[in-house]
Amino acid sequence: MKKADVVEFYARLAEANPHPETELEFVNPYTLVVAVALSAQATDAGVNRATRGLFSTVDTPAKMLELGEAGLKEQIKTIGLFNTKAKNVIALSRMLVDEFGGQVPEDRDALERLPGVGRKTANVVMNVAFGAETFAVDTHIFRVGNRTGLARGKTPLAVELKLDKATPQPFRLHAHHWLILHGRYVCKARRPECWRCIVADLCAYKPKTPPPKAAGATPA
Questions:
Q1: Bond from prior residue into 211 cis (ω within 30 degrees of 0)
Q2: Which of 182, 200, 199, 201 shows the shortest CA–CA distance to 143?
Q3: HSE (CB half, 13 Å, CA atoms) of 56?
Q4: Average pLDDT over residues 54-59
Q5: Active site annotation includes 154
Q6: Which helix (DSSP H) or strand (DSSP E) does residue 201 occupy?
Q7: By CB neighbour count within 10 A (0-12 exposed, 13-18 middle, 19+ buried), where does 111 fall?
Q8: pLDDT (0 to 100) of residue 216
Q9: Nearest 10 degrees: Cα torsion 133, 135, 140, 141
Q10: Which of 25, 66, 80, 95 is a good FRET partner for 12, with 20 to 30 A between their CA atoms?
């Protein structure tokens, strides 16, 4: 995608949604780390349902350790892979207490040392909690980057690095939220809704999807 098209691409997404936010619910950087870690292979809505009550009382690593692994499992049992995730959350909480004074570090390398926290999770936390210009490449961004031609790559890291290089100011801070939301609600995996896409004319995807036929319509 040409530089001028990249600017126009982001400008349209920004105009449509000037202040994009994560759809995960959290109350502080610690609960954000937990929410993002729980969201792997799960929907944000499902995580929110499970953590809404949890985060109302358990909002620090120390309180999570008091709750314990069994107690946490009971709270998040509706989330996929909850056994493994509960184990990781307790382990990362212990590390935060023992090595970071109960505070979430702002450094990517330190974040990635936490059990259950990979590069994508670290990038989300750095961006949302600390305002860093990072690009958390999930399945939606990976798809949008490759499909549109904005940032093509064979791995999430390759797409991340290309987004970092291609995305100009003033769009860098919110870029990954615009792309996630666009992939989640418009540029869908199985059937992208090209007919209502505000950046369709800038997109490299050739077989643009036509609008669905009205129910009961008869062929011409």
A1: no
A2: 182
A3: 6
A4: 94
A5: no
A6: none
A7: buried
A8: 47
A9: 100
A10: 25
Q: Of these residues, 120, 165, 188, 201, which one is catalytic?
A: 120
Tell me the C-alpha distance between 130 and 127, whole Å.
Answer: 6
**Taking 80 as the threshold, does the pLDDT of residue 152 lie above it?**
yes
Distance CA 204, CA 214 (A): 27
Pair 125, 36: CB distance under 8 Å = yes
Q: Which entry of 87, 138, 154, 213 is annotated as an active-site residue?
A: 138
- State the amino acid at position 171 in one-letter form: F
| Cα–Cα distance measured from residue 19 to residue 178, given in angstroms and rounded to the nearest whole number | 9
3-state DSSP assignment of residue 103: coil
What pLDDT score was predicted for residue 99?
Answer: 95
Which ranges of the chain would DSSP assign to H, the alpha helix? Answer: 3-16, 29-38, 44-57, 61-76, 82-100, 108-113, 119-130, 139-148, 156-166, 175-185
Both structure tokens of 199 = 């950046």
Give the separation between CA 56 and CA 48, rounded to whole angstroms: 12
Dihedral angle over CA of 81, 159, 114, 173, nearest 10: -110
User: In the predicted model, what is the mean pLDDT of residues 67-75?
Assistant: 94
Task: Answer yes or no: 120 catalytic.
Answer: yes
Kindly tell me if the per-residue pLDDT of 106 is higher than 60. yes
2-13 tens-digit pLDDT: 999 999 999 999
As given in the structure block, the two tokens for residue 79 are 């989330």
